[in-house]
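Dear colleague,

Following up on Tuesday's group meeting, I ran the structure prediction for the two-component complex that the binding team flagged. I've pasted the input sequences exactly as they went in, so you can double-check that nothing got truncated or mislabelled along the way. The structure tokens for the whole assembly follow below. Feel free to forward this to whoever is handling the docking comparison.

Inputs:
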Amino acid sequence: DTEVTQTPKHLVMGMTNKKSLKCEQHMGHRAMYWYKQKAKKPPELMFVYSYEKLSINESVPSRFSPECPNSSLLNLHLHALQPEDSALYLCASSQPTRRATGELFFGEGSRLTVL
Amino acid sequence: QQQVKQSPQSLIVQKGGISIINCAYENTAFDYFPWYQQFPGKGPALLIAIRPDVSEKKEGRFTISFNKSAKQFSLHIMDSQPGDSATYFCAASRLVTSGSRLTFGEGTQLTVNP
């Protein structure tokens, strides 16, 4: 079982809806990530939080808004999405670099469908 | 500079055979090279990883071979089993203080026939 828990597992939303994806880890990791994965494609990095501060934003549209309320939680707020945003959204965590092995622990993902 | 090229896109082997997946990178600043395994409906899981100061790493049936001068690395799966059927992603990263910024290859869909 993965130690990174994502909810919900499936989400269907209209283009005018506001919804959130949630991610939780209790491994003491201080770096957390959002990735987007389309079918038969590799994961694409969206955001990285390090010590609860946003450290990397890969030029993601503002309709995706990340939030890291504490060291265990990561949210992705969704608003006014487009059908092409339908994908598997993966959360991951890792140790920050000073103690890092470099390993990312991924959750099972939230499957998002935008109608 | 940030690309990682992976081949083949798909691979079919017989049970007990050897599966070989190859990757090449461009950015010499990369210092961590993991392989991830992903089953349908699941997130990727780390399989094995190597740093550029070693040329080979073996864990059970899985071996990474690393050629720093050629900027290439490969995954060998010995005695392949039907349970190994999955998508495999090579990746590379440069560990920075903000975390691990992985660049993934395009993936290889491995099918192991019984």
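Chain A touches chain B at residues 2, 4, 31, 33, 40-43, 45, 48, 50, 55-56, 90, 92, 94, 96-98, 100-109 (CB under 8 Å).

Cheers,
M.
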